[in-house]
Batch of 2 targets.
Target 1
Amino acid sequence: MTPQERVHLVDLVAGRVSNKRLAHILRVETLAVRLARFWGVSEEKASVASLLHDIVRDKSESSLLEMVKDEGDPLVREIAETSVSVVLHAPVGALIARRDFGVEDPEILQAIAQHTTGAPHMDRLAMIVFLADYCEPGRQFAGVEEVRSLLFSSLEVAMLRALAQTLTYLRGYSRPMDSHTVDAAAAFARLAAEDPQQLQQA
Ligand SMILES: [Fe+2]
Ligand SMILES: [Fe+2]
């Protein structure tokens, strides 16, 4: 992606989301690209995935469901069954990234699809987009500093903490939990237990 192509993509995204959302998206991109550089992941993929991650975030639940009505992709179909409607914009965003923006790279599409709930098996790009979304400088909530402090020592431990915080928050407010988040938290906890080396790095 040339700088001009990136500017063009930002323009297209700006045409589909609110100004406030665009500002969030650009902050996610900045942090994700920094993390990609640090962790040896493609900065271009981090940029594209970040710019498109919330592409349908401002659409209503009914229009998102309409968009996936005839979709054959099993992941999208499965997530569309969720009881937690806010997570729907992630897999639908991946769908739109492919359909309207011509993104074919499976890692980018997966990072977009997994950015809200996380998943048991995430590659580095997906963890980076998830964590950049969670930690971008506009985020201010109890616990965010703890996750920020882990970003450059262990992506896995940062994921573990972010997912655990999310579940604690949802439980505290008796909010419904998406099964992918529960499964992802369990998987990262297992990983940390099996590989304490990663915890020590943190
Ligand atoms: Fe999102
Ligand atoms: Fe986001």
Target 2
Amino acid sequence: MARRVGDTFRYLPLLAVLTLWPAFAHSAEPKTEAELRNFVVQDCGSCHGLTFKGGLGPPLRPADIEPLSVEAIEAIIREGVPGTAMPPWKALLTDDEIAWISKQLKSGALL
Ligand code: HEC
């Protein structure tokens, strides 16, 4: 039986994450701004939408996160939201990187 093309490509996003994850997790080098930008769009975007309009996770455009302070967003990124799909990122991102991401989300600079 011929496999449909769709079957082959269905797991491609998962494969991409599994392939890239170790390289990212073990890199001791501080990430450049371009790397961070890519990371946020790809990894955060996989749940929150590539343009942060929401998906599995809620939308993250400036108007959507208006009630949250930069500090509150930092805490959510650092610790995740227990009991939900939002994972903690502190093992993967430094405090500086988390602060940078929070500011970008607040300002909409990554959109
Ligand atoms: C596996 C899916 C997933 C990934 C990946 C993910 N998130 Fe989330 N995120 C969620 C979910 C689900 C929630 C909602 C949690 C809740 O119910 O309070 C959330 C909530 C949030 C919130 C709070 C939004 C609000 O209005 O309360 C912020 C901020 C956030 N995520 C940022 C990020 C950032 C930044 C990244 C990347 C570093 C990221 N998320 C990656 C699933 C994800």
